[in-house]
Amino acid sequence: xxxxxRGTKDILPEDIHLWNFVEGVLKEKSKRYGYSxxxxxxxxxxxxxxxxxxxETDIVNKEMYSFPDRSNESITLRPEGTAPLVRAVIQNxxxxxxxxxxxxxxxxxxxxxxxxxxxxxxFHQYGAECIGSDYPESDAEIISLACDILKGVxxxxxxxxxxxxxxxxxxxxxxxxxxxxxxxxxxELSEDSQRRFEKNPLRVLDSKDEKDIMITKSAPSILDYLDxxxxxxxxxxxxxxxxxxxxxxxxxxxxxxxDYYNHTVFEFQSSELGAQDxxxxxxxxxxxxxxxxxxxxxxxxxxxxxxxxxxxLDKLIEKDKLIQKPDVFIVSSLTPDDDYYLAxxxxxxxxxxxxxxxxxxxxxxAQMKESNRIEAKYAILLGEDEKKTNSxxxxxxxxxxxxILSVDSIGSFNFVNK
Length: 418
Ligand code: AMP
Description:
With 418 residues, the chain is an alpha+beta fold. The protein has two domains: 13-167 and 227-319, BirA Bifunctional Protein, domain 2 (2-Layer Sandwich), CATH 3.30.930.10; 324-412, 3-Layer(aba) Sandwich (Rossmann fold), CATH 3.40.50.800. The chain is built from 15 helices and 16 strands. It has helices at residues 13-32, 46-53, 58-63, 82-91, 94-97, 136-153, 168-183, 191-199, 210-217, 228-243, 288-291, 306-316, 339-350, 364-373, 384-388, and strands spanning 36-37, 43-45, 65-68, 74-77, 101-110, 122-131, 159-164, 249-250, 262-269, 278-284, 299-305, 328-332, 355-357, 378-382, 391-396, 402-406. The longest helix has 20 residues, at 13-32. The two termini are 45 Å apart. 34% of the residues are buried. The structure holds adenosine monophosphate. Residues 80, 111, 113, 118-120, 123, 125, 257, 278-281, 303, 305, 307-308 line the site of adenosine monophosphate. The site of adenosine monophosphate has 17 residues, from β6, β10, β11 and α12.
């Protein structure tokens, strides 16, 4: 038997209702905040990611699905959504048309990671990006949208961690101090962190290695190195979040995995998730447009991992409640090409009902049994008698109540509310 690729999952009909529910909330909340969807291809030129995410990151170093295509161009299955979206905004000159863009995206992403609960090689992300404002209210809007989505799907217990990486000047000053501190402990650091130390020392703060965590505990805090502009921005974000009653935890070690963040970074965590406790996160990325060779454009955004939302919701939501049961099952002894039967089927489907029929030419009794098994609201019993009298026999399956309806009165019958 051919199996699916390691780290990929089928989403089966029994689970799709939960996915549809989540996708509905994502769309609805995005709309409420005035965000429009932008869809980019699932693969891009490799440089889109190398240039933006940064060479010394796990994603670029070890996790990208990159391959030469048949004309030897290096192609990468997208590992994240911000870089492709920025590429699309620049390429399609969207930012010239409007000085503020509110965009969202949703779809599959690909990273060659070691699969475990909440970590796959193909996974799904929803992300929102607010492009064109350097003011703290845009950071607050993005964080507020993320929280509204979590609450909208029914997740109440989550932590919002925030930090500031400051502007370039502050970050540079801090970088130097951090290098001075870490170089005293260099040989005690994990191999990964020693490598990161060389190219991107801030990322050592991100390490999950226990010894690294011990060492970075006494490292200098970025918050002590923020200059006036950076402090003002961070205070502005915190002020609005407090006023709109979003509780947050300041986490000075939060730097997030990608290179392109500055000023505000944030993460949403849930204890329901175990080791992979991050539902999602994001931050401000004022330099990314310039990295792509475009005019510098301030922007802030976030992404959620949908599989992680589903893991949490699987325990919280009664999945049965999300399933729409059929309104009608047609139990018929007429032939499958009978004109009366086919006309009725068409009429019912045009009424926007969920209508199911037997396609295996089973006996009347077996069809009746099937109508109960699939928990249809009504069975419509159809035979020569009904055909002759231009009527149907309607059976409410909940209590067995049966009545005869003329074909003409079907249109006004309320099948949906029993
Ligand atoms: P990132 O783009 O790394 O900031 O990830 C944002 C969110 O996407 C994470 O918090 C996870 O919820 C989700 N995510 C990232 N990588 C994976 C993965 N390999 N499998 C499942 N979800 C993931």
